[in-house]
Design the sequence.
């Protein structure tokens, strides 16, 4: 069997329901954790059983260089504007990791995501960096789909 080299983490793309975004410079996929519950009944041996408890999904952070696109900022503005029904605001985000040839090889699906924090870039007249915006997405699920 031929050896499979691991994928590099610098080639990726995102699909966000109905939002066309050119590219992202960085995507941080939060960790997934299921809290254990200790349980024991009085007539059992003196060992605690472990049951699965609540599963928590950390936020996903997107960073990108500022362009003339305002779609992601407007998505966050829907929350700021007092949208009470998150049903229309939540989106599915698919993060696709590509090989060197640009072929999709692995993917993570982030379900029911909505922007909970928007951090515009700091500006510096003597700087020499790209202006980077950041958007943090709360979500209700992250799973590997490919």
Sequence:
């Amino acid at each position: 069997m031929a050896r499979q080299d691991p994928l590099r983490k610098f080639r990726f793309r995102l699909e966000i329901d109905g939002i066309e975004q050119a590219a992202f410079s960085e995507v941080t996929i939060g960790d997934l954790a299921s809290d254990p519950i200790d349980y024991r009944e009085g007539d059992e041996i003196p060992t605690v059983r472990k049951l699965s408890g609540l599963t928590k999904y950390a936020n996903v952070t997107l960073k990108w260089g500022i362009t003339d696109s305002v779609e992601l900022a407007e998505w966050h503005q829907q929350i700021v504007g007092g949208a009470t029904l998150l049903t229309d605001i939540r989106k599915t985000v698919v993060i696709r990791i590509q090989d060197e040839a640009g072929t999709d090889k692995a993917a993570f699906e982030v379900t029911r995501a909505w922007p909970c924090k928007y951090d515009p870039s700091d500006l510096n007249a003597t700087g020499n960096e790209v202006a980077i915006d950041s958007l943090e997405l709360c979500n209700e699920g992250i799973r590997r789909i490919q």
